[in-house]
Amino acid sequence: MKTKVRSASKGWEFFQGLGKTFMLPVALLAFMGLLLGIGSSFTSPTTIENLPFLDNPVVQVILRFISTIGGFAFTYLPLLFAMAIPLGLARYEKGVAAFSGLIGYIIMHLSINFYLVETDKIANADVMRQEGQGMVLGIQSLEMGVLGGIIAGLVVYLLHQRFHNVKLPQAFAFFGGARFVPIITAITLSIVGLIIPMIWPFFTMIINGIGSTIKGAGVFGPFLFGAGERLLLPFGLHHILVAMIRFTEAGGTAVVNGETVSGALNIFYAELKSGSPISASATAFLSQGKMPTFMFGLPAVALAIYHTAKPENRKKIKGLLISGVIATFVTGITEPIEFLFLFLAPALYGIHVVLTGLGFMVMALLGTKIGNTDGGILDFLIFGVLQGTYTKWYLVLIVGLIWFAIYYFVFRFAITKFNLKTPGREDNDTEAEIAQSNENNGKASSNGQAVQLLSALGGPENIQSLDNCITRLRLVVDNMEKIDEQALKKNGALGVIKLDEHNLQVVIGTHVSHVRVEIGKLMESKGYKISG
Q1: Residues 344 and 456 in one domain
Q2: Among 112, 469, 473, 488, the one annotated catalytic
């Protein structure tokens, strides 16, 4: 049964996996962005004027060094994607997959350069930007940005999947198996590099078309992005939309210090690094749009759930709610709160989707200029307050208080009016017990939780693939009927999502990677080989 080809399930698994792989470079980018923000904020003339003690040569050198290091991920982001995609998607020989991604990306650009030179299309240095060319790792090539890294990464993953265990004739056996992957990668990506210059205009036309659609929506562009991201979140596909807006022409194109930069987040980082004025059209798709919902709206939901719980159950659910609020307020990880009402009241989640989109639109209309990725308090302080009043950070507080009131009263009314069984309101205290179990899981051994979760998943024989993203276990299971949702929730799951008859997501929280490792160890101890 496990060997059957299930095209629909494979499609879900692939796109979810692709979205998950984006998070590896993006997580690094978020941290490096904080370094870049700290360095730029404390070296700006306005900050030095207000804090004269910063005007010290040694202090300024250290801050400029921090800013330089922070710019690393932005500069090499396409290469990071080229390595992260095969690394994340490959189930076996992951190190070889990442190594091949590096090789493939470099060879692809060498081949593009060869084509441009041989066809006399290589541009002079003074007109490279106008010709859509630039320097990539010291190679003059097409300015493909992150999309180039994604193309290389996907090709390498397909090659790795096909050839990682290939057997060659005895005379060439040394080059077989995993060693063959970088070899076939070099050959294939060299050919791809010759083809890309011929078809690249079609790629740019499609991406620019998406960007034009968003721009054509005017003030509704940020709304469509913010609402779309929340709408895709339950399926784990929101990372793909986010990556497109942040890193490709769909999120806009700007010239910063004579360099063409594409993607809302790329533009923001380039402007921050160079000291150029921050573009409101770029930040319209970044942190500022999330802040009314993440810092104010979702904490209000938690408060509404607490106030509408039975008095005797409030103590039981308090830990669950507080941990969820801290996650969304500080890091922008929202699932611990969202999954408390997503399945109980899809209509409420629909309201949440609309309010999130409106948050993006309102902050853009007000002209705020706060960038980065998370939408939590750190982004607010580093990229808002510390950058100066020109960011209009104070408007976040005003809009946020309005969002807090809307979320609180809407959710409190809906919960009481329709008797929604949010945590602490179940007649048999089941939800309260689940909440208590979730709270206690942080104190219990992760191995004990893994044992219970593995049993609730139908045992090791029911799991074909096991992986995780930031907050969720992502599984391909053999028989969905063996999944015990109630047992999963009693042992730490905030939500269980059955995408089809074989693809399953179990929302655990920010400690999900530890849970996945423990489950993997248990399966291996029972003689089951893990893929994922």
Answers
A1: no
A2: 469
